[in-house]
């Protein structure tokens, strides 16, 4: 793959052009990854609605039928179900850790084995997330294990 970057001060925004002999899985992954930029989520806290950059969200969790977004310093209630959030975050570093949780892999500081073939993810905000047995193999694949 060849990458060419051209600086053009006349442009108002970044423009990406992909030239390829055929559209294969690799090209589709590149397009998905590019689509992850500039993604914003909406969360509510203290009666106000906030726009959250996807990269700032450490993890998302469903508790009592409500979805919450956790950043390094705050918790926001999201207006959608976890599966809807998972669809919106396709192509990002978010991975399913359990039926109730999505974790932003960019915020994972360390991983260690836990009981019953589960994994424990230590996040850079100091919290720990348990990956269920069902989703542990996907996490290992993401690590290349």
UniProtKB/TrEMBL annotation:
GO terms for molecular function: DNA binding; phosphorelay response regulator activity. Gene3D superfamilies: LytTr DNA-binding domain. Residues 41-145 form the HTH LytTR-type domain. PROSITE patterns: HTH_LYTTR. PANTHER family: TRANSCRIPTIONAL REGULATOR, TRANSCRIPTIONAL REGULATOR-RELATED. This is LytTR family transcriptional regulator.
């Amino acid at each position: 793959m060849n990458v060419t970057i051209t600086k053009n001060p006349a442009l108002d925004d970044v423009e990406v052009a992909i030239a390829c002999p055929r559209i294969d899985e690799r090209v589709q992954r590149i397009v998905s990854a590019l689509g992850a930029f500039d993604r914003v989520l909406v969360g509510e806290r203290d009666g106000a609605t906030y726009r959250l950059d996807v990269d700032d969200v450490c993890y998302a969790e469903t508790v009592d039928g409500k979805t919450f977004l956790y950043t390094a310093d705050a918790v926001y209630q999201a207006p959608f179900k976890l599966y809807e959030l998972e669809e919106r975050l396709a192509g990002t570093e978010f991975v399913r850790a359990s039926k109730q949780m999505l974790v932003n892999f960019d915020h994972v500081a360390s991983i260690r084995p836990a009981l019953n073939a589960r994994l424990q993810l230590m996040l850079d905000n100091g919290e720990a997330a348990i990956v269920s047995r069902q989703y542990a193999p996907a996490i290992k694949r993401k690590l290349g294990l």
